[in-house]
């Protein structure tokens, strides 16, 4: 339900803040878990005596489970209520984490990671739905900034925690750390989240649409994952999956237009100009900014020879910048509109990304830390205002079906951005090494395996390749300006919190 604070329309009331903190307690697990597992892949491969290509399925299997469950989350929230859906999602994630910690082989670990993914895939749309319904449109910027904390800080501080766990404990602890946090999140949700929210008659589940959309997303995400692994889109087993995903989405669009509101996700929501602009912007943000987050630790670890822990610490300024921007950006979004805030954040993001297009083997850490702080401010001032703006013109009933759309676009955008940047990195490095008659690595994981004794020879070429990839990230980020221009603006709000004429 939307909350209001009579006489103080610019202030978040206690109920909204508590609801946001409960949601954060659940989302922080997922945000940290992804990067922690990525850091630990080599250790998992060694400990479970499995080749790295098989161990990679610990990540891929999770991603596919997320793709399968995202389309279902909207109907599930309508049928059982957002609170029940949230508790179910957190419980699945915690159960999957405990099972992963007890895994006895790489096959069992992959299976249990998919259980984790079923819970993790419902958490983002569920959290956004709960916050949107609780805060209402007039205070959505500040409310969304609360759940922006784990979304933006997870990729920054995950490598630090992952490095600590891998270096000083066994691999089991990268999953066990989720269990107490998840149990606390479930207890808080049962205690504090408001009940209700279920639709009186959600209708029968659109099974055909669910299968079509889930399979399409899974094909896309798997194809993009393979493109990142192989460092390009040239192989037919990559192209085939991507074509299958695109064709499937086209068929689902036709199916949804025929069924209308009865479809699992109603594509007619995109006829809302603000929601469509926000959706496109979220997709581009995920491509340029979150894809760029993949390159940052890789640069510090390969070119500069830092371990996972120190690389994570060097990324901390980006998290600090994001916190500053989240606090300020949420309030400004509610006061003047995302249409003013996002372009400013975009300029900051571009200013913070540009120094990385010029990186070398000895670029000043102080200079890069300043750039990361500015880039973090840009991230915070773009991501959450964009998401909150997408919901402002939707009815409360439409939010539960809109949230999976944004989550799917964010997931696909981040995967596509990562694949494009890894491809740019490896192709540039391949060209440079080939010109010198040297062997070239084949993908992002292989790039990270460059031996330290080769850095004096390969280092400058590798740094140049990272600079080229960051130029791609710079260009993808700049594209956000086009949908940002269509986001809502308002000069002031009256006492009831409605836009002034």
From TrEMBL:
SUPFAM superfamilies (UniProt xref): MFS general substrate transporter (SSF103473)
GO molecular function list: transmembrane transporter activity
Coiled-coil parts of chain: none
Keywords tagged on the record: Cell membrane, Membrane, Transmembrane, Transmembrane helix, Transport
Source superkingdom: Bacteria
Keyword Membrane: yes
Membrane-traversing stretches: 16-37, 57-77, 84-104, 143-165, 171-193, 236-254, 274-296, 308-328, 340-359, 365-391, 412-430, 461-487
Keyword flag Transport: yes
Gene3D superfamilies (UniProt xref): MFS general substrate transporter like domains (1.20.1250.20), Multidrug resistance protein D (1.20.1720.10)
Membrane topology type: Multi-pass membrane protein
Sequence ranges assigned to domain Major facilitator superfamily (MFS) profile in this UniProt record: 19-492
Record's GO cellular component terms: plasma membrane
Protein localization: Cell membrane
InterPro entries: EmrB-like, MFS, MFS_dom, MFS_trans_sf
Family label: Belongs to the major facilitator superfamily. EmrB family.
PANTHER family tied to this protein: MAJOR FACILITATOR SUPERFAMILY MULTIDRUG TRANSPORTER MFSC
Annotated protein name in UniProt: MFS transporter
Classification of source organism: Bacteria, Bacillati, Actinomycetota, Actinomycetes, Pseudonocardiales
């Amino acid at each position: 339900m939307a909350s209001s604070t009579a006489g103080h329309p610019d202030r978040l009331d206690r109920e909204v803040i508590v609801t946001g903190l409960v949601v954060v307690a659940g989302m922080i697990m997922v945000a940290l878990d992804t990067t922690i597992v990525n850091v630990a892949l080599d250790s998992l491969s060694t400990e479970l005596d499995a080749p790295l290509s098989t161990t990679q399925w610990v990540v891929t299997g999770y991603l596919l489970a997320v793709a399968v469950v995202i389309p279902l989350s909207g109907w599930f929230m309508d049928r059982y209520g957002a609170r029940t859906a949230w508790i179910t999602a957190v419980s699945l994630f915690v159960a999957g984490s405990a099972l992963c910690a007890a895994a006895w082989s790489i096959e069992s670990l992959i299976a249990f990671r998919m259980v984790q993914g079923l819970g993790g895939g419902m958490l983002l749309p569920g959290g956004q739905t709960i916050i949107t319904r609780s805060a209402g449109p007039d205070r959505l910027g500040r409310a969304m900034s609360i759940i922006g904390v784990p979304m933006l800080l997870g990729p920054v501080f995950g490598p630090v925690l992952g490095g600590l766990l891998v270096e000083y404990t066994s691999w089991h602890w990268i999953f066990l750390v989720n269990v107490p946090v998840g149990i606390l999140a479930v207890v808080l949700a049962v205690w504090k989240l408001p009940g209700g929210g279920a639709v009186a008659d959600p209708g029968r589940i659109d099974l055909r649409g669910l299968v079509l959309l889930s399979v399409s997303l899974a094909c896309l995400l798997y194809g993009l994952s393979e493109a990142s692994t192989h460092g390009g889109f040239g192989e037919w087993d990559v192209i085939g999956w991507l074509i299958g995903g695109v064709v499937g989405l086209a068929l689902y669009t036709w199916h949804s237009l025929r069924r209308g509101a009865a479809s699992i996700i109603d594509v007619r929501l995109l006829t809302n100009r603000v929601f469509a602009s926000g959706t496109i912007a979220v997709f581009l943000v995920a491509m340029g900014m979150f894809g760029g987050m993949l390159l940052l630790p890789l640069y510090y670890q390969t070119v500069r020879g830092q371990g996972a822990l120190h690389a994570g610490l060097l990324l901390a300024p980006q998290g600090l910048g994001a916190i500053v921007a989240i606090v300020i950006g949420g309030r400004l979004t509610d006061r003047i509109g995302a249409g003013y805030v996002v372009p400013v954040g975009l300029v900051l993001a571009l200013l913070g990304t540009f120094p990385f297009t010029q990186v070398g083997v000895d670029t000043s850490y102080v200079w890069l830390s300043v750039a990361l702080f500015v880039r973090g401010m840009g991230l915070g001032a773009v991501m959450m205002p964009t998401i909150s703006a997408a919901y402002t013109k939707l009815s409360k009933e439409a939010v539960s079906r809109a949230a999976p759309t944004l989550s799917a676009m964010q997931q696909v955008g981040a995967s596509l951005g990562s694949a494009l940047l890894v491809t740019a990195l490896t192709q540039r490095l391949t060209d440079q090494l080939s010109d010198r008659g040297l062997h070239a690595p084949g993908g992002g994981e292989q790039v990270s395996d460059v031996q330290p004794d080769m850095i004096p020879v390969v280092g400058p070429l590798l740094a140049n390749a990272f600079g080229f990839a960051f130029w791609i990230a710079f260009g993808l980020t700049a594209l956000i300006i086009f949908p940002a221009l269509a986001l809502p603006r308002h000069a002031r709000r009256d006492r009831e919190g409605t836009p002034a004429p």
